[in-house]
Amino acid sequence: MLRISLIPLFLAGGAFADGCPVAPDHSEPLQVLYDQLQQVDGDMEARKVSNQMWQYWADAPDEASQEILDEGMQARAAFDFVRALDRFDRLVGYCPFYAEGYNQRAFVTYLRQDYEGALPDLERALELNPKHLGALSGRALSLLALGRDLEGQKALREALELNPWLSERHLLKPLPGQEL
């Protein structure tokens, strides 16, 4: 079956032009979901709410960026990290104000155990979307993997304030002078 790419041929090369539209604003429905996370009764309910959040975060600004994001996520799922990084590099080059591009690139970098390398993309994702749970928990995990425990614990607490049901909650330890 012949598959026609939605990405124009002139975009297939190196850097993209400044043609990416603004990402959709999902702040209102996401706030409803953040509120729901505070009221759910367990992991299963929280997972359903989190999955709904991912649908919003993975809603790219246009068809071309959606195709790039989807290709990168498929490559990541297949453990083709070289292709995934290529796709996410293209995505952040084309849509530098779309948080999920940075978050996904950071995730691949984290999976490659380059924890230090993941941090700049996580920070950028959080600049663009301060309540992105994936980026918040990714930052916590990266800092903890680097042995930066105090910073990692603080980052983990930020994420848990938004979603107390995160699977990473088992990594929570008391801060100096505090009890859990």
TrEMBL record:
SMART domains: TPR (SM00028). InterPro entries: TPR-like_helical_dom_sf, TPR_rpt, Ycf3. Gene3D superfamilies: Tetratricopeptide repeat domain. Keywords: Repeat, Signal, TPR repeat. Residues 1-17 form the signal peptide. The keyword DNA repair does not apply. TPR repeats lie at residues 99-132. This is Tetratricopeptide repeat protein. It comes from Pelagimonas varians. The lineage of its organism: Bacteria, Pseudomonadati, Pseudomonadota, Alphaproteobacteria, Rhodobacterales.
